[in-house]
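Narrative of activities, Objective 1.

The group set out to show that a structural description can be obtained from nothing but a protein's sequence at a throughput compatible with the screening campaign. Below is one input-output pair from the validation batch, recorded exactly as produced.
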Amino acid sequence: MGGLRELAGPFVVPGPCGVAVRDRFKHLTSQDEKVLRAVGEHQGALASRDLKARCADGLEHSADTWAARKRDLTKESSSRIAGAITKATHDQWALARRCQAAHIQTLEAGIRTLRHRLSLPIGAPGTKRAAGGYRSRSEWFHKSRRLAALEARHAAVVADRQAGRVQVVRGGKRLLNTRHHLAEAGLTEDQWRQRWEAERWFIAADGESGKRFGNETIRVTPDGEVSIRLPAPLAHLANAGHGRYTLTPRISFAHRGAEWADRITANRAVAYRIHLDTERGRWYLTASWQRPVVKTIPLATARARGMIGVDTNADHFAAYRLDRHGNPLGGPRRFFYDLSGTAGHRDAQLRHALTRLIHWAVRVGVAAIGIEDLDFTTEKTREKHGRRKRFRQLISGIPTRRLKARLVSMAAEHGLAIVAVDPAYTSQWGAQHWQKPLTTPRRTMSRHDAAGIAIGRRALGHPIQRRTAPPPHDRSDRARHRTAQAGPGDRGREGTRPPATDRPPGEPSPNGTRTREPSASNTVRDAPSTQQWVQDSLTHTG
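Output recorded for this entry:
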């Protein structure tokens, strides 16, 4: 491959296995809000205590310690609530461990880059694959100090991981740090306190198949009536039998409501979560359930009707449609989005762009969308890109993880498959082989559009290059047709090569020889016709 890294093969991304829908509680009474707050505070305190116990166990956790924690929680709530709390605790601890491993990888990537650059002479030039030496002795000194700091931080994190220690904050580390920057966040201390307490509440219940309406703790009937099984210390707040509290408003899921109704009618498991949005002052109910794992279609089936290659950028998707042979069809398509502003605004922009992309794919009749399997985990360090702060901000702004999750779930609803490909060299080779040939006076091709073609061809199993030359046995075409081409800037390069006799007189041939100028014609047949030829009648002499 001439120094190129080995490329991973394309694969069909597995479909989603879960569904979540949400609806708002409208017209809650003051008593309803009082009960919800009391339940959230009580169960949130139990969840905090259980998380503390789980973190203290570390790597010594076992089924016995889990059962002991669940028995302690059952005394102050119920068996089902205790099971939901301990399950959420284990999920949170496992997520912290995965984040810890990712942090270690990031530190190791920065350390490798610093060690490499510090080992080079000052001012040594870099290459496309690796940065060069530092520009001055002062910069070299400061980077050596940073290397020492990263090594110390790496050693501390590795020691924590080996000991089973994790750093977890119920309510979120970002919200916790916002407490020290209230003016920048535009919050008062009371507003921050309300948001902090709401994030630490716990009003959730796991579903149970075979139970009435799929959940015994938070029960929702087909007509939308919501009732909650209160913990033992709050049983005096019940307004229904068996220690339950029935809320005044009714729930109706507009999205996937029929699917939800079919599940609860058949008493299949549905999990619920109730939370408060403090910014809007609204209460919401989220219902979620699992779907059977959908078997992905074979890669050959996904390629049968062509492919749409999508290049992901910081502000738009560059898409191009290809037939099953890898030939571009039509013109490039771009789907723009704006990732500035709040998280809700960014998520809405991403969904809107993906919706337009999927609708176009369904309209043109393809069966799959090809996209890069992007992961910028080791690319965001400032040690790798040095002073290219704008570039680091650019790749950090691309929502790769959320994009893949959104695209897979939304495409599955329309019967489309997602084919992930290796992102190596797609932009470089796409621009080299496809950008200029497809540029016309009425069609502008960007580097991103050409990358979309490269991604689509790789997803279809074709090489990105437009043509591949056969091995030159000799001057004949016994291997297959030769693919010698004119230069990219030559006019008429897409046509057939003219024979040597059609070149202007005296023009050198490709081998450097000159052709002989044509001589004057010696026959009437070859001479140009400048007059009408008339044959005279025969004369007879006596």
